[in-house]
Queue: 2 jobs
Job 1
Amino acid sequence: MESTKLRTIIQGIPKVELHLHIEGSFEPELMFKIAKRNKIALPYDSIELVKAAYQFNNLQEFLDIYYAGAQVLLYEQDFFDLTWAYLTKVHSENVVHVEVFFDPQTHTDRGVSFDVVINGMHRALEKAKNELNISYRLIMSYLRHLSEEAAFETLEASLPFKDIIDGVGLDSSEIGNPPSKFKKVFKASAAHGYKLVAHAGEEGPSAYIWEALDILKVVRIDHGNRCLSDEALVKRLVDDKIALILCPTSNVALKVIKKMDEHPVAKMLEKGIIATIHSDDPAYFGGYMNENYYQTAKALNLSIAQIQQLALNAFQASWLSATEKEKWYKKVNDYFNTI
Ligand code: HPA
Ligand code: ZN
């Protein structure tokens, strides 16, 4: 399909973001602005030099830069500005529902308190709900390179805010930090009413996806790219309707795949997996939702029906109510009937 036409179609789809680290939406322009007002020196002299540094060979090289960037966030207003900038950006892309990850430990370990982080984000999310009609859920992620004990401290710190936090996730350095390391804290999180997700099978093996399902008991998998090498696992994902929350531009940027035309999403759809497309850390990987849809559709030559399926899958995998889901399935289908 012709590129402009494909971009126009993608723009018009009502979309859902289910895999977005708010710290990964920190655009260099805003990073410089906040660093200046907080009087923090950045290790770069210009926005151009920051962007030039965004070349990664693997997940860890990215994480080192991502955690460094987050150091300039100190005050509630900083977290508000970060979140509001993200929400206005995705509103322009017709994203109607977001389920946002945040990494409390990246901030609390620097002495920024949990309430500062969550109050700033929450104020922006409420404003977007009222002014931009974007619904939201919030997911706090435990950093898997830290201990389970540290995750328990984070769980404790979150409890005064449990009405505004919907779930917990697991992110950061995957290899060597299997899901089973967090068995107890996930069980305790569920007991407090949190829904459960985890990054698994991004760089780590399919065994980590099994652990996330069987030991942590997650309801969906973030990434999960590695599942196709394991037929029994594919069957499990299909039978139990476990969605894979994929991030194609991230996968290329972090060299999880060599080129976009190797992305497994089309094969996953063929196998009946509820695969969905999202942006992960768009300020670092160069693509918000539309760009992820566009690059994937282009490289894999996806049909209109496959693009429609991806859009519907994201609503299905979301934590919207059944009534809300039905409303959006109809809107998506009506939209595709007009093109
Ligand atoms: N993987 C693991 N941890 C992360 C990522 C990711 O893609 N983005 C932010 N933290
Ligand atoms: Zn992620």
Job 2
Amino acid sequence: MSRKAIIAANWKMNMTPTEARTFLDAFLPKFPEATGVDIVIAPSFLTMPMAAAQIVPNAAVDISAQNMSAEASGAYTGEVSAAMLKEVGTKYVILGHSERRSLYGEDDAIINKKVLAALENGFSPILCIGETLEEREGGKLEDVLRGQVQGSLAGVSAEQMANVVIAYEPVWAIGTGVTASPEQAQEAHAFVRSLLQEQYDEAVAGATRIQYGGSAKPGNAAELISQADIDGFLVGGASLDPESFAAIIQAGVDAA
Ligand code: PEP
């Protein structure tokens, strides 16, 4: 089954509104029309409204949040709701990023609530999963991925899975400059796909897009995306430079 690649920039806590404008002024003219891949940019909440004003009118690029509250509204200081994200034209929401898991204590139960809330509000969650080096070296890779997939997707229907993107991000490769080899990444992606087959069916497993994340860059993107089960990238560091993010996208367009 052919799946449309999806390549997303996770800007994390980088890019002020002014810096984002400079980035977008350089980046958006490179992709004035829809390409063969879905392109997504996830700015910080504060940068989102300004970035959305430039991104949303561009047919080739969509905007994503980096997180979202599972609650609809109310006394949740510092949180951002689905309704707020809708108003700025958000299409995707990154959920369960390893930094949210390790630094802010988000577990699969919390992430599951957010995934369900995102789907109910018409967003496409980009659900991040991935093992630490200790877990991989301890032979726990499959158990960790199984727990994250089952826990984060509990109660998500086969129909709703059409809107879910999974990002496999080995924690040891995020922001470290160490990339999973194409073979390591392919093996993990194929395993995640087999989990979707167990939890859903062959159609869902075949249709779900699974991004790779972890020090993706222009120099390794083409080889990674040529793997059978790698359907794009979630890019941190290399997405902060318009030229390098565009080069990673070009690898996806060339492979499409
Ligand atoms: C990420 O944080 O999702 C990520 C993949 O970061 P980097 O590309 O910097 O490893």
